[in-house]
Every structure is written in structure tokens, then in C-alpha cells.
Amino acid sequence: MADFLEFYPLRTHNTFGFDARARLAVHIRNESDLVSALSDHRIDNLPIVVLGGGSNVVLTGDLDACVLLMEIPGYDVAEDDASWLVTAGAGETWHGLVNRTIDEGMPGLENLALIPGTAGAAPIQNIGAYGVELRERFARLRAYDRQSGDFVTIDLDTCAFGYRDSLFKREGRDRYIITAVTLRLPKAWQPVLNYGELTRELEGVSTPDAAQVRDAIVAIRSRKLPDPAKIGNAGSFFKNPVVDASLRNALLADHPALVSYPQPDGSYKLAAGWLIDQCGFKGVDDGPVGVYGKQALVLVHHGGGTGAALLALANRIADAVQAHFGVRIEPEPVIL
Ligand code: EPU
């Protein structure tokens, strides 16, 4: 029998720190906890919401749902000729996993250091930072398929990873519950140093090792992203919009300082933080919610506010960017 908690407070389960309650919640510490929770008739008419670290969600109110608090531990290393294959339970913290692999001599995740959240949540939005995306280090994952009632293995191609996107944000959203993730860390390691800010941070270090790259990333992130333990936030609140070359060129003609990055398919990614900054929102507070002063892409909650108020601010920002640049920016976190 699953151990359901009623009207469970979620404030410490979302990094924005919004006060919201779940009609039911249950700690999932292993796969059998998951099976028994999902087969319990008490949740028959309730939607299921899966929460890892709660670092990429906006709770807009109480959830008339059953929240699965994913806390499955686990760490296992296998290898083939070319790679280390590291499997982590869905509930392991991502940064803890990055540190452990580096400490154990398996580099590869250093550019993804200090990203909040859990290993199980990492594939959902294909976390990425400083020139590396999860999909480049991903082998497979294990998930419970609510359609078939079986545990399944899902490989790299099936995950259909894109920029901050995957199967699990689309068709797979209410179908799969990730219980473990296996990463592929090539033994022939090369640091990825093509991100300008990272190169500058490592100036003077001729051949940095993975720990040095990790430390540089931690330093950069700590300088410009708020620590969720101190200020409620979910990292980048908006995705960087991707536009075709003609629109980007037209914008560049009007705004010579426009920040844009060419994509392999000829399109351009625009820096949403720059667009928002230009509209004058950086560091602007609207009561208990606001825009972070050092990075306009990050929305913050100072306490006592609601997810609904934050979303209203996000809409005002997106409207202003649209009015000014003719580009719609979309939220990155999952809105619940
Ligand atoms: N910029 C401004 N004003 C701002 C913010 C940014 O002018 O207020 C400019 C910067 O000067 C820079 C450009 O915009 O020229 C891009 O900024 P930055 O390098 O900080 O990266 P980002 O595009 O804002 C993305 C990811 C981050 C990731 C960094 C590093 C998205 C939505 N965000 O941010 O991911 O850490 O690159 O790779 O793709 C996250 O997803 O939560 C996250 C933090």
C-alpha cells in the first residue's frame, strides 16, 4: 500500500519557493514504490505530477493531483572499450553526479556543473550549458511506461532531444516516468572550451583538466545566476528564440548590438536575456516577484508571492519583447 500524504506542502519542493499544496503526494524511493503508488485506487481520478528537484517548474496554485516525489537513489559504473557508462537513480542530484564522476576520474560532465535538479529530470529538457548538452553524453534511460505498465529502456534516438526539448516534453509527457539515466562518458576526453566566457575564465591555464573546467563553470554560474537556496528561481525562465536568417538580419540592421548565434541549419538563436534587457526589465521587481539584476533571463521570487503573479510578469515581458522586436519568447519551465 502506498503511503500517500494529504494536502502536502510543496514549498520546499520547488526552487521558486512558491507555497502550493498537493492533494496527495508520495515519496518514491525505489521502483516498487512507483508501481504500488500508480496501482493504488485512491489516485484513480487524479492526474499524476512527477517532481524531481522542482528546479524547472512553476506552481501556479494548489495541485489537485498526486505528486510523485522522485527520490530513487543509485550509482553504478560499467564500461566498454571507448566509454564509461554511468547509471544514476532518478533522484540523485545532478551536480552531485557531476562531481562524483569527475572525482572518480570520468570526465565529461564538467560543463554541466551546478545545474540545479536531479539526474532523472536532466533528459526532460535536455539540460545544456557552456557548449555541452546532455544529449552529447547520453546513452539511455529507464522509465515506467504508464501505457503498457512495464519498465522500458529508451535510447538516445527515441528521446528526440532538441534545444531544451525532448520526447518527455511532448508525446511522452504523461506516459513515461524516468527512474534511472545512463550517461556515456568517452574515455578519450577533450575539454569543450569554445564558449567565450569559459575561455576567459580559464585564461592562463594551458591544459585544464575536468576539475578545473568544473571549477570555472561553478565560478561563472555563481557570479551571474542566483542560488535557489537564497533567492527563488528556476534558472533561465525563457528559451532563447530561434529565428530564420532573414529576420535576424533585419533585426541586426535595426539593432547592431543584437546578440545572435548561427545554428547548423542556417537559422539563428537570439539571446533572450539581451532582448529582455533592452526592454528595460533587468532588475525590475513587481512586488514579491521580479527580474534578476545580473541576468535578465532569470525571474525571481523574493517570498510571499505566487506562481500566478510570476506568470503575469512573464507575459508582460514577452509582450514587450514582441512589441519591440517582433519575436515571441517562450517560457522554459513546466507550468503546473
Ligand atoms: N545578455 C544581456 N543581458 C542580460 C543577459 C544576457 O545582454 O541580462 C547577453 C549576454 O551579454 C550574452 C548573451 O545575452 O551576450 C547570452 O547570455 P549568456 O551567455 O548569459 O547565456 P544565456 O543565453 O542567457 C544560456 C542558457 C543557460 C546557460 C548559458 C550558458 C538558455 C535559455 N539559457 O543562457 O541555461 O547556462 O546559456 O550556456 O538556453 C538554464 O537553462 O536555466 C540556464 C541557465
UniProtKB/TrEMBL annotation:
It catalyses: UDP-N-acetyl-alpha-D-muramate + NADP(+) = UDP-N-acetyl-3-O-(1-carboxyvinyl)-alpha-D-glucosamine + NADPH + H(+). The keyword Cell division applies. The active site is at R164, S236 (proton donor), E332. Its cofactor is FAD. SUPFAM superfamilies: FAD-binding/transporter-associated domain-like, Uridine diphospho-N-Acetylenolpyruvylglucosamine reductase, MurB, C-terminal domain. Residues 18-188 form the FAD-binding PCMH-type domain. Its main location: cytoplasm. InterPro entries: FAD-bd_PCMH, FAD-bd_PCMH-like_sf, FAD-bd_PCMH_sub1, FAD-bd_PCMH_sub2, MurB, MurB_C, MurB_C_sf, Oxid_FAD_bind_N. It is an enzyme of class 1 (oxidoreductase). One of its GO terms (cellular component) is cytosol. The keyword Kinase does not apply. It holds the Pfam family FAD_binding_4. GO terms for biological process: cell division; cell wall organization; peptidoglycan biosynthetic process; regulation of cell shape. Cell wall formation. Belongs to the MurB family. This is UDP-N-acetylenolpyruvoylglucosamine reductase. It comes from Cupriavidus metallidurans (strain ATCC 43123 / DSM 2839 / NBRC 102507 / CH34) (Ralstonia metallidurans). The lineage of its organism: Bacteria, Pseudomonadati, Pseudomonadota, Betaproteobacteria, Burkholderiales. The gene is murB.
